[in-house]
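Collaborator request, handled under Task 6.
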Amino acid sequence: MYNDFVKMGIVGAGKIGAFHAKNAVLYSPAKVVAVADVNLAAAENLAKEVGAKNVYPSYEELLKVPEVDAVIVSLPNNLHYDVIVKSIERGKHVFCEKPLCISSRECEDVLRRVKASGLKLQVGFNRRFDPSYEKAKRLIDEGFVGKIVDVHSNTFDPEPHAGWEAREELSGGIFFTSGTHDFDLLRWLVGGEVKRVYAETRGVFGRDQSVVCMLRFDNGVLGTVKAYEACPYGHDVRTEVVGEKAAIRIEQPTATFTKVFERSSVSSDYPYWFIERFRESYVREIQEFVKCIVEDVEPKVTALDGLMSVKIAEAARSSLRDGRVVEV
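C-alpha cells returned to the collaborator:
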C-alpha cells in the first residue's frame, strides 16, 4: 500500500503545522497531498511550499479525499478530539500535536477508537526523540543511576502565551500547553505512573504565570515540574534524574559555542525558542510516524501516553483550584 509515499493531509497551516509538513516532505517517505485551514490563504501558501495539490477551508473536506493516508493535526487544543474522531472514522492514521485532547474523557474515547480501528495514532511529544533524552532513557534502563529517587523537569518560555493559547477554554491552560511535555517526559523516564499531584501558582496565565507541581509516582519516586511563560533569558528546558548510584541532567546551556568576554562579564547565546532547541527531535518524530505506518508497528508515543499526561494536567488544575493534593 505504501510502496511509493505515505500521502499526508495537513490540518492546520499555522507555524507548527507548516513545520511538520515541511519536515515530512524533506526528511521522510511522505508526500503532502492536501492542506486544510479556515484561513484559506495560509493553507494555499503552505500547499505551494510543500507541493500539495488540494487546499480546503475545512478539515471535513480534506478527510473525504481518498488518497490521504494520514493526517497531521495542528489546531487549537480544544479542536483535537473532533478531528481525531472523524479522521479515524475515515480510516486515516493520525499524528496529533500535544496535548491529545483537553479532557481525559475525550482521551479515553480516542484510545478506545484507536484500538478498535487498528490505525496508528502518535502524540507530538517530540522531546522523547531528542538525542539527549534518548541517551538519558537508555542509561536509566541499563541501571546506570540505580533506583530512581527524585526527578525534575521544567519548561520556561521566553514569551507569554498568546492568541488562542492564552484562552484557557481553548488551550486548557499552562498545565496543558507547557506541563504535558514535562509530565510525559517524567512518566517515560521513571517508568511509572503519577498517583498524587499538588500544585501552586503565581502570576496570570497569558501574561506572566509560573507554576510548580509536586508529583508522587506509584513506585515511590518524587518529582517536580515547573513552568514559566515569561522567562527573561530564553527557552529553558531542563530535566534531572537522581538515583541511588548516579544522577543525570539534561539541558542545553548555550545555543552556540561562542562566549563573549568583557571587562565586567562573560556571556553566551541561549536558545530563544523551542524550535531552535528541539529542531532535530521534530524531524525524528515525523520520521517515526511515517515509519510506523509503513512498517505497521506501534508508535513510541501512543494515545495511552496522551491520556496519562492529560490526567496529570487535570489533577494539577484541580489542585490549583481547590488548594489540595489530588489523586490521579
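The cover message to the collaborator said: "The chain has a mean pLDDT of 95. The chain has two domains: 6-127+280-302, 129-277+309-327. Please let us know whether this matches your experimental observations."
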